[in-house]
Amino acid sequence: MTERILILGATSGIARGIAHALARRGHDLLLAARDGAELERIAADLRIRHGIEAGVVVLDVLDEAQHEVLAGALAGDERPLGGVVCAVGYLGDQERAFEDPREARRILDVNFTAPVLLLNRLAAILEARGQGWIIGIASVAGDRGRQSNFVYGAAKGGFALYLQGLRNRLFRHGVQVLSVKPGFVDTAMTWGLPGLFLVADPMAVGERIVRARERGRDTIYVPWFWRGIMTLIRALPEPLFKRLSL
Ligand SMILES: NC(=O)c1ccc[n+]([C@@H]2O[C@H](COP(=O)([O-])OP(=O)(O)OC[C@H]3O[C@@H](n4cnc5c(N)ncnc54)[C@H](OP(=O)(O)O)[C@@H]3O)[C@@H](O)[C@H]2O)c1
């Protein structure tokens, strides 16, 4: 039986770009997120445009019981799991997160705790198969803490570190882990946000991510120029950096 690729956060703008890039290459897909109606619309579009099989799973990553059910179903499925994309994310509101522990917890859980717990289970399936790949979407926000989004940034920075360690573990089992650090991408997450620049098209970003996976890359910035921007930002001395309004 042919493999399937699981996309977590499949209703996200970046995940749609990745889904189309994978479907163009003939991969069958399993799309997961909370919004079942939107998942069905995306799956139908992928089937019609690319002639692939696209299934749908309604999943709230904050519900750990659902992790066990999903991983159990995939482990026992006659169609092997070929790869996993984790595009789940929640930007949240930094000011609210500073005052309201519930908002801070939601940001930490959606971007870090839940993806780690779920990917651990899914990685075990790929490790046992001795093949496959994982694409995890972190963020440039995780490269340096800034006053405007440091709870989200901490969660994404933690997730990037997790992906790095997972890559180190899975490498010897024949499983590739690609860490992706997007800059600004034109999606629901960034819609209407002030101060954005060089905003990228999610379809172009999706294609770039899939190509990097095929080339066996470990970590990429998308678009590419964010690697340079973040090298500069990381190089700024802390006594100067803490005075900036970033
Ligand atoms: N856009 C950017 O500029 C940018 C920059 C850097 C990094 N990123 C990261 O890239 C990834 C994709 O971003 P995007 O902008 O394309 O995102 P988006 O359009 O805001 O989508 C977020 C995704 O997360 C899913 N999600 C949120 N909470 C969930 C939950 N509890 N359970 C299951 N799914 C949940 C949403 O699905 P449902 O609502 O249907 O559940 C949706 O598919 C995210 O990890 C984001 O942090 C984005």
Task: Describe the protein's architecture and organization.
The protein is built from 9 helices and 7 strands. A 7-stranded parallel sheet has the order 3-2-1-4-5-6-7, sandwiched between helices. The protein is globular and about 55 Å long. The protein has a single domain, classed as NAD(P)-binding Rossmann-like Domain (Rossmann fold), CATH 3.40.50. It has helices spanning 13-24, 36-50, 64-76, 94-99, 101-129, 150-170, 202-214, 226-235, 238-241; strands spanning 4-8, 28-33, 54-58, 81-86, 132-137, 175-182, 219-222. Helix 5 runs parallel beside helix 6 (150-170). Helix 1 (13-24) links the parallel strand 1 (4-8) and strand 2 (28-33). The relative contact order is 0.14. By secondary structure, the chain is of the alpha/beta class. NADP nicotinamide-adenine-dinucleotide phosphate binds next to helix 1. Residues 9, 11-15, 33-35, 38, 59-62, 87-90, 110, 137, 139, 182, 184-185, 187-190 line the site of NADP nicotinamide-adenine-dinucleotide phosphate (NAP).
Write the layout of secondary structure elements.
Layout: E1 4-8, H1 13-24, E2 28-33, H2 36-50, E3 54-58, H3 64-76, E4 81-86, H4 94-99, H5 101-129, E5 132-137, H6 150-170, E6 175-182, H7 202-214, E7 219-222, H8 226-235, H9 238-241
Parallel strand pairs: 1-2, 1-4, 2-3, 4-5, 5-6, 6-7
Helix pairs in contact: 1-2, 1-7, 3-5, 5-6
Bound molecules: NADP nicotinamide-adenine-dinucleotide phosphate.
NADP nicotinamide-adenine-dinucleotide phosphate binds at residues 9, 11-15, 33-35, 38, 59-62, 87-90, 110, 137, 139, 182, 184-185, 187-190.
